[in-house]
Amino acid sequence: MHRLQFHYTLSRDSSPALVRNPLIDLLQAVSTQGSISAGARALGLSYRHVWGELKRWEHELGHELVVWEKGQSARLTEFGAKLMWAESQAQARLAPQIEALRAELERTFAVAFDDSTHVVTLYASHDDALSTLREHALQQASESDHHQLHLDIRFTGSVDAIRALNEGRCVMAGFHTLTHTGPKTLTERTYKPLLKPGLHKIIGFAQRTQGLMVAKGNPLKLQSLQDVALQGARFANRSMGTGTRVVLDDLLAQSGLAASQITGYEHSEPSHAAVAHAVASGQFEVGLGIAAAAQRAGLDFVPLGLERYHLVCLKSALQQPGILALLQLLKTSAWQEKVTHIAGYTPLQSGEVLSMRKVLPWWSYPMNSAA
């Protein structure tokens, strides 16, 4: 069984949408012209090139394509003729779909050729407000004749997001920390090695609430992590490297609890939505997450702490057109009003470039520091 691969070309010319292998053109030329040399002339190619390509394809496909008889006109083998037939059948049946695919590709690539359009690649811890921001930016782009912004968001853990920024895989990262997390905490140990004053810049985005997601009516009457431990409630955790896992471990430390006291601590889910689903399905009785995820799953929500959701980029990227367009969008009243309608969210210094020392209190620098 031979597999098909598709390729496309970029051109300034307008031409029909075709998905066609060059071999078919060779077979067509040889078949209609009656010889390899005449077929080569019709294609504007050398005899040696056409002959070599036909031999290469015969080796690749494991079948003869042309009958090679001295003194006779070249003709296609049965297999070569069937290839031509299959091509004509495919073109006839798939022409509308091929044209639609070409049109969609052209619409997508139009972004790359439009100097007024900017694409910002952002790796981030999963966040409902960021998903809403992406849709808001698309809506603004469709309504504006001026600068357009497209957010290419890849959701991953907070730690992996910052690493992606530091490795050049994106121009911005999103992560979150509890608002009152000080020095000598897991938050400090996790993020401090990844963020460098003078190299990175924090951009305000939003404040959100983390809490316990529990079944409707909160049947176990869980109000704290101490209750979760005492009740032995089955807990759905988040994966290592996620910001919420860091938040949980810091909340446990603040409560004087060990991970071993939480039933199910070793079980992890990939997102807030997955934790909410695990609780809603009855597989687990409680999990840590955001209010918006609990609301969508029809769960009750018990607030445990406020956190800031940060955006971070390299200082050198602040003047890039895409970053400037994003900062401008975040400062608009339309966007900040939209954030207030997401359960558990409020805008907080949205779009402002902030001092790392002030936002992340475990940094300690002289007041005149440029951090």
Topology overview:
Blueprint: H1 22-33, H2 36-43, H3 47-61, E1 66-67, E2 75-76, H4 78-113, E3 117-124, H5 128-143, E4 148-155, H6 158-166, E5 172-178, H7 186-191, E6 200-214, H8 225-231, E7 235-238, H9 243-254, E8 268-269, H10 272-280, E9 286-290, H11 291-296, E10 300-314, H12 321-330, H13 333-340, E11 345-347, E12 353-354, H14 356-359
Parallel strand pairs: 3-4, 3-5, 7-8, 7-9
Antiparallel strand pairs: 1-2, 5-10, 6-9, 6-10, 6-11, 6-12
Radius of gyration: 30 Å
Distance between the termini: 60 Å
CATH architecture of the largest domain: 3-Layer(aba) Sandwich
Q: How many strands in all?
A: 12
If you consult CATH, what is the topology of the largest domain?
D-Maltodextrin-Binding Protein, domain 2
Give the helix tally.
14
In terms of structural class, how would the helical and strand content be classed? alpha/beta
Residue-averaged pLDDT: 88
The biggest beta sheet is recorded as: 10 strands, mixed
Q: What pattern of helices and strands is seen along the backbone?
A: HHHEEHEHEHEHEHEHEHEHEHHEEH
Estimate nothing, just give the exact number of structural domains.
Answer: 2
Fraction of residues in H or I helices: 40-55%
Low-confidence parts lasting 5 or more residues at pLDDT below 50?
A: 365-371
Global shape: elongated
Give the percentage of residues in beta strands.
15-25%
Would you state the CATH class of the largest domain?
A: Alpha Beta
